[in-house]
């Protein structure tokens, strides 16, 4: 009997911990993929030192490049909701600092995401598109 209770307890714990994991909106297509940042606040990203991008890893972390500097942090995602934790960033200067500022402001406003094939759109709390991504 003790063995059965132990097995049931273990299975229950695994179920609970699995349910608490990050839910991903696009299946495996959302995580562990490098998304190029192609548009911010309705303007195409055309000036950059390095291709701006972001990757959401399956362990709840994100990292990328905002044109000049690298950034990183954690995220929580459930359904369409996407919350980014305040993370860290390198501090270099480059020629495309305005692009970087725009990207970081859009990331700080992130409230949700919609993934459709090779494209994704990040929205703020008001439902406005703040960033478009492409694989």
Description:
It is a single chain. This protein is α+β, with helices and mostly antiparallel strands. Helix content is 23%, strand content 36%. It is built from 2 helices and 10 strands; from the N terminus they run αβββββββαβββ. The protein has helices at residues 2-20, 97-108; strands at residues 34-40, 43-44, 53-56, 61-65, 70-78, 81-84, 88-89, 112-116, 119-123, 129-134. The longest helix is centred in the first third of the chain and has 19 residues, at 2-20.
Cα Rg: 18 Å
Could you tell me how far the N terminus lies from the C terminus, measured between alpha carbons in angstroms?
52 Å
Query: What's the total helix number?
Result: 2
Please mark out the parts with pLDDT under 50 across 5 or more consecutive residues, or reply none: 4-24
Which overall shape is indicated by the principal axes computed on the Cα atoms? Answer: globular
Question: What is the arithmetic mean of pLDDT?
Answer: 84
Q: What amount of the residues lies in strands? A: 35-45%
- Oligomer category: single chain
Given helix and strand content, the structural type is alpha+beta
Q: Find the count of extended strands (DSSP E, 2+ residues).
A: 10
What level of helicity do the residues show? Answer: 10-25%
Q: Give a short account of the largest sheet.
A: 10 strands, antiparallel
- Give helix and strand order, one letter per element, not per position: HEEEEEEEHEEE
């Amino acid at each position: 009997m003790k063995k059965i209770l132990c097995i049931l307890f273990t299975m229950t714990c695994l179920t609970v911990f699995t349910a608490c994991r990050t839910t991903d909106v696009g299946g495996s297509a959302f995580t562990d993929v490098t998304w190029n940042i192609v548009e911010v606040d309705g303007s195409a990203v055309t000036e950059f030192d390095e291709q701006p991008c972001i990757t959401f890893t399956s362990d709840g972390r994100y990292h990328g490049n905002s044109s000049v500097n690298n950034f990183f942090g954690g995220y929580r995602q459930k359904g369409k909701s996407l919350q980014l934790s305040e993370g860290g960033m390198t501090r270099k200067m480059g020629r495309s600092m305005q692009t970087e500022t725009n990207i970081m402001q859009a990331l700080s406003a992130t409230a949700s995401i919609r993934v459709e094939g090779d494209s994704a759109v990040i929205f703020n709390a008001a439902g406005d598109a703040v960033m478009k991504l492409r694989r």
